[in-house]
Amino acid sequence: MKHSALCRPLQGLFLTLLLALLSSHVFAQEAPLTEREALQAQVLAGVCASCHGTEGRLSGVIPAIAQRPASVLESQLLAFKRGETPHTTVMERLARGYTDEELALLARYFAQPQAYRPTQP
Ligand code: HEC
């Protein structure tokens, strides 16, 4: 019993890494966001900015997320949502509030070179 309780977080980590590897392979080519997708993503990403910085680039205790490959961000977010990432503070609860499609969109959004420009004219 004790053994499996210890292994579970490790399994989650392993799955996350495996997912990241697999999806980065499959989705190596990123399509740019359409105007509509970019608008939707900006609304969804507003809440992320309060912790991850306005462009997802804040450095410090909270990890920066901007401009990482979308496939990596997506698998991290899905792993949070499914409770597969051990020792999270807020991301597990947060990620549950989004559909898988919204998480994929957020991942593509933060992966862009010019991620999150709230004051664009
Ligand atoms: C209340 C603060 C807060 C908000 C809001 C927030 N995050 Fe996070 N995020 C964190 C913290 C803290 C971590 C580290 C994992 C943990 O403790 O949950 C993290 C980790 C992450 C990671 C993994 C980064 C890594 O290298 O491990 C990603 C990806 C991420 N967040 C994306 C997002 C997205 C997308 C949003 C908006 C939907 C968001 N976060 C909103 C605090 C926040």
From TrEMBL:
Keywords for this protein: Electron transport, Heme, Iron, Metal-binding, Signal, Transport
Superkingdom per UniProt: Bacteria
Gene3D superfamilies per the UniProt record, alphabetical: Cytochrome c-like domain
Residues of the Cytochrome c domain: 35-114
Cleavable signal peptide: 1-28
PROSITE patterns, sorted: CYTC
Keyword Iron tagged: yes
Name of the featured protein: Cytochrome c, class I
Species of provenance: Marinospirillum alkalitolerans
